[in-house]
Design goal:
The protein is built from two helices and 13 strands; from the N terminus they run ββαβββαββββββββ. It has 200 residues and is mainly beta. It has a single domain (4-197), classed as Sandwich (Jelly Rolls), CATH 2.60.120. The chain is globular, with a radius of gyration of 15 Å. Bound molecules: N-(carboxycarbonyl)-S-(naphthalen-2-ylmethyl)-L-cysteine (MD3) and fe (iii) ion. Residues 104, 106, 114, 119, 129, 131, 138, 140, 162, 164, 168-169, 171, 173, 175, 193, 195 line the site of N-(carboxycarbonyl)-S-(naphthalen-2-ylmethyl)-L-cysteine.
């Protein structure tokens, strides 16, 4: 499958066909049943508009103690194993010899967004990051490693994969908004993003 390069990131449009997307939604339902979505807050106690959980060896959490990876969910249970469809996508696209440590599950209600940021909580930035999108399209913006400056827009639709490798690994990026009604995959409007990372 061929990719479109945007600022060094590789965009695989329609990487997952409809059947694979439906399988992955079922796998995510099982993850959320074992490790419920929670509402993360910033160090200052401000809620993020995205709800989250994780699968894999560790999970990303944010609370009044800050951002970090933890071996357990805030409610105390271990994170469920990496869903098979996620593991297969990582093997197909990442070029990395080991599985990811963390698959972060982000749930976006139609009004949710994620401000521009860098992913810097991992030990080894030479490892790629893989993102998979399900449900309504997310308007994704990606800029440079340096703050400020222009960003490019990518509309991440259901089934799209995005591989962040090389210089794009430390790019500023975020989700400006969700476009409700752009997918029939989920029973309610909203978007699921899965982000796989090697934490180290
Ligand atoms: C570019 N998630 O969880 S996915 C995040 O759609 C995050 O939920 C967004 O940014 C989402 O941290 C964007 C695409 C993505 C993921 C990780 C990246 C882009 C990235 C890491 C480095 C550079
Ligand atoms: Fe990010």
């Amino acid at each position: 499958m061929s990719a479109i390069a945007v600022r060094g990131a590789l965009w695989f449009r329609g990487f997952l066909d409809r059947a694979a997307q439906e399988r992955l939604v079922d796998e995510i339902r099982a993850v959320v049943a074992a490790a419920p979505l929670f509402a993360p807050v910033t160090r200052r106690g401000q809620p993020l508009s995205v709800r989250m959980t994780s699968a894999g060896r560790c999970g990303w959490v944010s609370d009044r103690k800050g951002y970090r990876y933890e071996p357990r969910h805030p409610d105390g249970m271990p994170w469920p194993p990496l869903p098979p469809t996620v593991a297969a996508a990582w093997e197909a696209l990442s070029g990395w010899p080991a599985p990811p440590d963390c698959c972060l599950v982000n749930w976006y209600d139609p009004g949710a967004r994620m401000g521009l940021h860098q992913d810097r909580d991992e030990a080894d930035f030479s490892a790629p990051v893989l993102s998979l999108s399900l449900g309504d399209t997310g308007v994704f913006r990606i800029g440079a490693e340096a703050r400020g400056g222009r960003t490019d827009r990518i509309d991440l639709a259901s089934g799209d994969a995005l591989l962040l490798t090389g210089p794009s690994r430390l790019a500023h990026h975020g989700i400006a908004r969700i476009l409700p009604g752009t997918s029939t995959l989920l029973p309610a409007p909203g978007r699921i993003n899965l982000t796989c990372r090697v934490v180290g």
